[in-house]
Each structure stands twice: as C-alpha cells, then as structure tokens.
Design a protein that fits this description.
single chain, alpha/beta, Spore Coat Polysaccharide Biosynthesis Protein SpsA, Chain A, 7-stranded mixed β-sheet, 10 helices, 50% helix, 11% strand
C-alpha cells in the first residue's frame, strides 16, 4: 500500500497508514475526506458507511486526545495525523495535499467528497452530491440543509447559519443557501486549484470566495442532517470566530468592498457632522472647532480608504489575470 509523508513543523507528522483490509488505492474512483477531532464515538461508523460508496476514505486526525485515530484505522480508513490540534482548516489543507499526491499516481479518482466526522451527515447522500461533479456540471457541490429536505435542526443553529450565509454571500459575491455546510463534493480541478489560508472554522466561507476567484462552478444539492449530541464548542464563540474570519476574507479577496464601504461610511458620517457644525454656527454664531476637525478627519480617512480599495482592487485583478494566464 502507498505511504504518503509530508514534513510539517516539528510537532506534526503526516503518515498515512493503510490498515489491514483497507481498499486498494490503485482502484479508487471516488475518495472521501473526513477531518476529525475527538470523534471516537462516531468515526468508526462514519468510515464504515463511507466505504460503501467510496473506494478510499481518508481521515485526517487533527491531534485528537481520544481513540479517534485508532478506531478510524481499524474501520479501514487511510489515516493522516497531526501531532497537535491545528484546526479544521489545517486538517482539510492536509487532506487536500495528501489526496493530490495520491491522485498523481492514481488517475482513476474522479471526485472527492468531504464530510464531518461526528455522524451528522448521511453517507447514503454521497452519490447525490457527486453526481453533478462526475457529470461535469459543477466543480463544487455544497450539501444544503435548507433546500427542502426537512431535518430536526435547533432554531439557534438555523438563525446562526442563515446569518453567516447572508454575510458570506454578500462578501463573496456568490449565492448559496447554506455556506457553512461541511458536506461537499469537489472535482479534481477544484481540488488542484484551492489552497486555504484561513484558520479555524471559516474554511467553508473561504471555499466560496475561492470558487468565485478561480471561476469554479458551484452549485447545491439538498441533504439531511442528524444532530446526535450538543455542540462541542460554544456556538456564540464559534459564530464570532467564523464572522471574524469572514471579515478577513472580504479584506483579502474583495478589497474594494471592504475598504469602499468603510470609507463611504466614514465620509457620510463626516459630512453629517459637517452639516451639524454649519447649522450650529448659523444659529449660535460659534464655530465648534473640535467637531470641525473631526469632520475633516473623517472625510480624509474615508477618501483614503476608498482610494486604497480602488488601488488594491486593480492590483488584485492584475495579479489574478497573470495567475490564470500562467495556469
């Protein structure tokens, strides 16, 4: 069986291990990627079910402190391990890098499916997600929890997911109904082109930005979900972390939007304050020099931000054109 190794920091090791009874990688046509952290309760059943629909199931164990790695191996997964917990984005990056190496040696792989290791996704829906990719109709297919298939989703999750989806849609310029879904299918073109720079749990949002940036065709397919236990992380903190990552992504991928809106807001506030200063002078005959200085500063700051956004937008467009010509 093949062994794939990649040097990371001293604390990390990437050592895919093919356990006894695992599928022959040389015959793979569909691969499943499962990022996992402390999922010993569910990872075994996830791997077993995923192997009904895919020839290769890869689990990236992100520094789990429980038996996740051992159970994944025993269930038949190709295991890749991080010695320390580095976050979901790092786990998916590692999985993509390792899969690219396998695909270079095995041309039979046609698509990659990503799903969570906590058992919330139904592996029986893998064919539905893969169908548009295998038919050449899409580069990324996102499994949406809000496309007609009814699942028992807590109301606080629905509110939070819709809020983050709206923000991601506005920031990325593309429209989805479930931007935070972890159940996705990718074409080989998408796998090759996407490299992630975000940290934590904003990677799903970054995929939407990258799809727009790299002209990848993205679509959705309805899925159902099962929430077997309460969230492991504080939902408010996780939501704020995603939102913070999203703001960073807007600044990185759409600088005109990021700096332009901020600059216009500053200029509008400055002009409103200027009108107040003028009206006050007309009524009292006294000039509020302090407010007048703030008015000038807000307008100058706004003008600088709008100009910065325009310059960065032009530079980014030029670099993007050069990159695509190089490809």
């Amino acid at each position: 069986m093949p062994s794939v190794k990649k040097k990371q920091k001293e604390t990390d090791e990437l050592s895919p291990v093919a356990p006894a009874g695992s599928p022959n990688v040389s015959s793979v046509s569909l691969a499943v990627l499962v990022p996992a952290y402390n999922e010993e309760r569910f990872i075994g059943s996830v791997v077993h079910q995923a192997r009904w629909y895919a020839d290769l199931v890869m689990v990236v164990d992100d520094g789990s402190s429980d038996a996740t790695a051992r159970i994944a191996e025993e269930a038949g997964a190709l295991l890749v391990r991080h010695a320390l917990n580095r976050g979901k984005s790092a786990a998916i990056n590692t999985g993509f890098i390792t899969l690219k190496k396998i695909i270079k040696r095995n041309k039979k792989i046609k698509a990659v499916v990503m799903l969570d290791g906590d058992g919330q996704h139904r592996c029986a829906e893998i064919p539905r997600l893969c169908a548009p990719v295998l038919a050449g109709e899409a580069d990324i297919v996102v499994g949406s929890r809000f496309l007609g298939v009814k699942s028992r989703i807590p109301k606080w999750r629905i509110f939070g997911q819709h809020a983050l989806t709206l923000a991601t849609n506005l920031g990325s310029g593309s429209k989805l109904t479930d931007s935070q879904s972890g159940f996705r299918a990718f074409s080989l073109r998408a796998l090759e082109q996407m490299q992630f720079g975000s940290e934590g749990f904003s990677i799903e949002s970054e995929m939407q930005f990258l799809a727009q940036e790299d002209h990848l065709k993205i679509m959705e397919a309805p899925i159902s979900v099962i929430y077997r236990e309460p969230a492991k992380r504080n939902p408010v903190q996780q939501g704020l972390a995603v939102l913070g990552g999203l703001i960073k992504l807007v600044g990185q991928y759409r600088p005109l939007l990021f700096f332009g809106i901020s600059g216009l807001f500053s200029m509008i506030l400055g002009m409103a304050l200027g009108i107040y200063v003028v009206e006050r002078f007309q009524v009292t005959g006294q000039f509020a020099s302090g407010l007048g200085m703030i008015c000038v500063l807000l307008n100058v700051l706004g003008l600088i931000m709008v100009s910065t956004g325009l310059i960065l937008h032009s530079v980014r467009g030029l670099l993007s054109d050069l990159l695509h010509r190089g490809r």
